[in-house]
Amino acid sequence: MWDDDGREYIDASSGPMVSAIGHCNERVVDAIAAQARQLDYAYSLVARNRRNLEFSERLARLAGPGYERVSLTSGGSEAVDNAVKFARQYAVATGQESRTRVLALDPSYHGATLSTLALGGDPTLDRFLDGFVTRSEKVPAPMSYRIPDGHSAESYAAFCAEELERTILALGAETVLAFLVEPVGGLSTGAVVPPPSYFDAIRDICTRHGVFLIYDEILCGMGRSGEFLTARNWPDALPDIVVLAKGLGSGYTPLGAMLAPAGLVDELATISGFNFSYSANANPISCAAGLAVLDEFERLDLVTCARERGAQLGAGLHELERTHPIVGDVRGIGLLWAVELVADRETKQPLPAAFQPSEKALIHGQRNGLMLYARSTAGAPHGNWFMVAPPLTITQAETAELLHRLDRTLAGLSSDAAAEGLLAGPGG
Ligand code: PLP
């Protein structure tokens, strides 16, 4: 990307993990223009359009068995909303009206509409939301870096899964509708990847209690993890419903999708149907853009790219972790990584809020030709990190250049922190 002064940047985070196929892709631009000339709009409940059919079929094919039905929206928040509404409508249609409670992780993020804010795990919103909307019940997220004494990441994840079951039993399983979870964390946890045992455990718990397991793959899905669906990394523990957005439209158009199994959707269709739509869902221009994005996914084999370039990026980030003491942790999967900044690597003590670690990371990144993504909300109770998640089209040489610029970025950050006497150890 280039700014107003002609300075060049690598988009090292795909915006907020949106631009999966990179910017200004001519094939997508042409598909949008052609569709706009042919059919700009048709309301999906009155007139189905061919691009909707083609896009939904292609998406279901890429998602694979178990996710044959697609419901489209204009973004991630709407798609999460649809997933929960679908679960609720199924419960009501099958005589399980008592299932009204949704469980989610703390911390987590599921969107910015009122309902999705209410679902997400951000305690700083308590004053805004309490008494105003019905919140989800929170269970601890299986964080991997700062975990309670005596726990390993694996044992803490097992504890978090047990907390899920304890919460379900405390509420009464017959009142619990769904468990909503980001299988790989986004900005809220900084790309935390739970151990496989966690997925086995939550799948088993949800199955035993008749609770819908919904994966919010809005940020981590669409190939970024090295599988088209992140859920496929743990094939024995697949969720009931998957939600996608961000990379689905890759920034060319607002798009989100809920994916669900044919059996469930077709059963509901014979009872009550799924009775909610938006004026703009399955908009032909958005569907044409989405189809062209999926064409690029297949033409360029971007899922394989995510795996290969992800291995290069991950190895390079771990190398930077070794050479820069300001880096406390590097974690991620595929082309979705977070770099956690600390004042003291031994104690994992975060940098003070007054230092503005996230803002400084963005500034030093920009100075070195990198657009990064970071945000410290409410004093960052779980620490400070920035995301490294470039478009899946990044080349080997560009990945090396990104790492080179990140090296300089971390050096700049370290010298700022050292100048303020914030870094423990040599040079601090
Ligand atoms: N869920 C997750 C995990 C996200 O990261 C986001 C956006 O950042 C959303 C939901 C909401 O998506 P949107 O901003 O498209 O409404």
Structure, described:
With 428 residues, this protein is α/β, with parallel strands linked by helices. The protein folds into two domains: 10-21 and 302-419, Alpha-Beta Complex (Aspartate Aminotransferase, domain 1), CATH 3.90.1150.10; 26-299, 3-Layer(aba) Sandwich (Aspartate Aminotransferase, domain 2). The protein is 41% helix and 14% strand. The protein has helices spanning 14-17, 26-38, 50-63, 76-93, 114-119, 126-129, 153-171, 196-209, 262-271, 284-299, 302-323, 357-367, 396-419, and strands at 10-11, 69-73, 101-106, 137-140, 176-181, 212-216, 241-244, 256-260, 327-333, 336-341, 370-371, 373-374, 384-388. The strands form three sheets. The chain has a seven-stranded mixed β-sheet with strand order 2-8-7-6-5-3-4, with helices on both faces. Helix 3 packs parallel to helix 10. The radius of gyration is 22 Å and the shape is globular. The mean pLDDT is 96. The structure holds pyridoxal-5'-phosphate. Pyridoxal-5'-phosphate binds at residues 16, 75-77, 80, 109-112, 182, 186, 216, 218-219, 245. Pyridoxal-5'-phosphate (PLP) is lined by residues 16, 75-77, 80, 109-112, 182, 186, 216, 218-219, 245.
